[in-house]
Automatic annotation (TrEMBL):
<dbReference type="InterPro" id="IPR036264">
    <property type="entry name" value="Bact_exopeptidase_dim_dom"/>
</dbReference>
<feature type="binding site">
    <location>
        <position position="80"/>
    </location>
    <ligand>
        <name>Zn(2+) 1</name>
    </ligand>
</feature>
<feature type="binding site">
    <location>
        <position position="216"/>
    </location>
    <ligand>
        <name>allantoate</name>
    </ligand>
</feature>
<feature type="binding site">
    <location>
        <position position="91"/>
    </location>
    <ligand>
        <name>Zn(2+) 1</name>
    </ligand>
</feature>
<keyword id="KW-0378">Hydrolase</keyword>
<dbReference type="InterPro" id="IPR010158">
    <property type="entry name" value="Amidase_Cbmase"/>
</dbReference>
<feature type="binding site">
    <location>
        <position position="91"/>
    </location>
    <ligand>
        <name>Zn(2+) 2</name>
    </ligand>
</feature>
<feature type="binding site">
    <location>
        <position position="288"/>
    </location>
    <ligand>
        <name>allantoate</name>
    </ligand>
</feature>
<feature type="binding site">
    <location>
        <position position="191"/>
    </location>
    <ligand>
        <name>Zn(2+) 1</name>
    </ligand>
</feature>
<protein>
    <submittedName>
        <fullName>Allantoate amidohydrolase</fullName>
    </submittedName>
</protein>
<keyword id="KW-0479">Metal-binding</keyword>
<dbReference type="Pfam" id="PF01546">
    <property type="entry name" value="Peptidase_M20"/>
</dbReference>
<dbReference type="InterPro" id="IPR011650">
    <property type="entry name" value="Peptidase_M20_dimer"/>
</dbReference>
<dbReference type="GO" id="GO:0046872">
    <property type="term" value="F:metal ion binding"/>
</dbReference>
<feature type="binding site">
    <location>
        <position position="376"/>
    </location>
    <ligand>
        <name>Zn(2+) 2</name>
    </ligand>
</feature>
<keyword id="KW-0862">Zinc</keyword>
<dbReference type="InterPro" id="IPR002933">
    <property type="entry name" value="Peptidase_M20"/>
</dbReference>
Amino acid sequence: MPDTVAHGLLAGLDEIAGTGRDLRAGGYSRLLWEPAEHELRAWFSERAQRLGLDVEVDRNGNTWAWWGKSGPNAVVVGSHLDSVPGGGAYDGPLGVVSALEAVARLQAAGFAPTRPCAVLVFAEEEGSRFGVACLGSRLLSGGIDADVARGLTDRAGITLADAAATAGLNPAHLGRDQAALDRIGIFLELHVEQGRGLIDLGEPLAVASSILAHGRWRLSFSGQGNHAGATPMTGRRDPMVAAAHAIVAVQQAALASPGARATVGRIEAVPGGTNVIPSSVTAWLDARADTDDQARAVVADVSAQLQAAHSGCTGTVVEESWTGTVTFDPELAARLALALGGVPALATGAGHDAGVLAARVPTAMVFVRNPTGISHSPEEFATLADCLAGVEALDTLLRELL
Ligand code: GLV
Ligand code: MN
Ligand code: MN
Ligand code: MN
């Protein structure tokens, strides 16, 4: 591995290491079109331009950097720069930095691609601002209705349409972008692994085989807001208590369905005062399982418990996003695994833009070992040696595909 690659990769990660730090949660909070995320995109554009790439932002806010002429039948390699609240340094950025580094390395070697190539940064992969994960790839591919997307709101009540306009996009143009999509011949995403798969295998790299079926549901509870001191315990209609029952039901439903995973990672009480019985509570459910039916059965189980209306409250369940089980193109995966000298195939429980695109174009992923096995947390990690193995892998795969 030439030393310049180590320096380039490190420089890339270092240059953004100070952007979007979350002093409360630790790690990074880089939410779509907020200042930190703007800064990261500006950084990406500047870096891509330094490599002589042509940068363009598509109708949905995804940023493309073309090496030579744009599409058709391009090999597109990319990931995302946004994060979950309090996320790690690698989820997303490692794929972007590695893609730029692989292109730089091919250029330095005088490699001449025989088909178009682009580095792509998707918008709002985590869904941390507007609630729908992989929003940029869903919009691009028509995986979400444009009107539904325009009406999504962030925590401050700002609609996606308004935020897009503020970010310089035309909200009327959000939605399926067939011309942009048609340029992709193959999509490739390198990503830090988010579980313990590669630790257990004792390997630095793997090619993705599948992604669990997964989705998000909004659980809403409504009761009677009232005074915490003046209201006797009997007869209260406290939606926080109803939500608490539901959260326990979420855990029990997943435990009863081997392999399923269900999480409530976010909850909001209105109005949210220590001495106020809330009038309403919203909790967001993330449920995942091996098959679509299994994931939906877990949610149906939770839903049935909600209908059993605890504490005199009403509860409703609304689906916010859904991605069925993804099986990556087995031929492409086998070809890439072979090109990498026989790396293992690995299934994942984490969602990715590659999973959304897989339904439309041949798509593959490369995972880089995460020695902590922890992700969506500041403890997410990848060693320099494994990151360099990832760049080397992208270099090899781009040579194979271009
Ligand atoms: C994104 O990383 C997800 O799997 O939620
Ligand atoms: Mn993530
Ligand atoms: Mn990610
Ligand atoms: Mn993800």
